């Protein structure tokens, strides 16, 4: 299947997969996956997605021993050499604890290495580890993020930059190199559930990516409304304010197969986060099935069920891209390959037919 980068006239929405590179214990063997193996499998998964015609591959960022990825642009640069068409994005870059100049330079370099396929999804971050690690104060993260995203936008626009803020050394006529192959790197802001961050994305004119991991997707409509209202007030038109969603899920030929195959890995993944103030109750099979119910945004099921949920999101807020994390908890590459194929060959046609009648 041929992929056409960024072409929304061919398909109703863009599809993507993403990974956080978690190093989970295999629920069947009890063995931990080695970081080297995990990274090799990420590259193989990206190759499979590229060959299937999926438009996007994202790599997340964590700074702890049970994750293999702390530097998305490094991993994406390796993926760039193994793929041909698929766009490559962070999922996400924690811009509250990263220097915008270094972020821009890294992704501009990735853009050159990938022949113009790089994107950046930035967020304030959902975990506490990066703040003390990189010398930032947690209580300032909202203000720092807003300042950093504005600077990142400026770096994206100009080769020479003069800038002054509160949380970083001032820049005076600094040469920002290298420049990306694309005229500008596509910038997105990721949001969990904060309307203020969604409004910031609108006022900046970036894309908005909402992390919807469970529950009713309709509950996130206020985020989109805050985003588009702020964007319109800043002078942007709705068509230049794209909305994306990231979520967890797994696709199999039937709902029963999807639940049976994915549950052990997802349950172990949830157990992994029993650290500090992040304590989760053990996830029972019944509770897992409730998470995956037809009315929820948890994308576990048959191609027909997953397509129905994505179409519903499109109807709710004009979804333009959907990215799915299916390797949660160390799902084997062989099973992930089958799920990627179903996403491309089964889910996508169903979504196209429902939205544009293709």
Automatic annotation (TrEMBL):
One of its GO terms (cellular component) is cytosol. The keyword Cell division does not apply. Gene3D superfamilies: Luciferase-like domain. Keywords: Monooxygenase, Oxidoreductase. InterPro entries: Bact_Lucif_Oxidored, Luciferase-like_dom, Luciferase-like_sf. One of its GO terms (molecular function) is oxidoreductase activity, acting on paired donors, with incorporation or reduction of molecular oxygen. It comes from the Bacteria. It holds the Pfam family Bac_luciferase. Residues 14-316 form the Luciferase-like domain. PANTHER family: BLR5498 PROTEIN (PTHR30137:SF8), LUCIFERASE-LIKE MONOOXYGENASE (PTHR30137). This is Probable oxidoreductase, LLM family.
């Amino acid at each position: 299947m041929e992929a056409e980068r960024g072409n929304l006239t061919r398909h109703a929405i863009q599809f993507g997969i993403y990974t956080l590179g978690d190093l989970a214990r295999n629920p069947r063997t009890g063995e931990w996956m080695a970081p080297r193996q995990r990274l090799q499998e990420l590259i193989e998964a990206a190759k499979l997605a590229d060959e299937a015609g999926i438009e996007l591959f994202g790599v997340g960022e964590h700074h702890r021993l049970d994750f293999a990825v702390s530097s998305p642009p490094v991993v994406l640069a390796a993926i760039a050499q193994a793929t041909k068409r698929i766009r490559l994005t962070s999922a996400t870059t924690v811009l509250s604890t990263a220097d915008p100049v270094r972020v821009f330079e890294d992704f501009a370099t990735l853009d050159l290495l990938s022949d113009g396929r790089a994107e950046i999804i930035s967020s304030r971050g959902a975990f506490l580890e990066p703040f003390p690690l990189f010398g930032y104060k947690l209580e300032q993260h909202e203000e720092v993020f807003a300042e950093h995203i504005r600077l990142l936008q400026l770096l994206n626009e100009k080769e020479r930059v003069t800038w002054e803020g509160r949380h970083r050394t001032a820049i005076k006529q600094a040469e920002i190199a290298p420049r990306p192959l694309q005229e500008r790197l596509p910038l997105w802001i990721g949001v969990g559930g904060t309307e203020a961050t969604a409004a910031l994305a609108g006022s900046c004119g970036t894309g908005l990516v909402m992390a919807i991991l469970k529950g009713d997707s309709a509950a996130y409509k206020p985020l989109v409304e805050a985003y588009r209202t702020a964007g319109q007030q800043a002078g942007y038109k709705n068509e230049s304010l794209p909305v994306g969603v990231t979520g967890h899920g797994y696709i199999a030929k039937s709902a029963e197969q999807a639940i049976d195959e994915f549950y052990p890995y997802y349950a172990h993944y949830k157990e992994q986060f029993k650290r500090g103030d992040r304590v989760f109750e053990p996830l029972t099979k019944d509770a897992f099935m409730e998470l995956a119910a037809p009315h929820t945004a948890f994308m576990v099921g048959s191609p027909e069920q997953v397509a129905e949920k994505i179409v519903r999101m499109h109807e709710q807020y004009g979804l333009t891209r959907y990215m799915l994390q299916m390797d949660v908890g160390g799902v084997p590459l062989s099973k992930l390959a089958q799920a990627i194929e179903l996403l491309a060959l089964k889910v996508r046609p169903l979504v196209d037919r429902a939205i544009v009648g293709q």
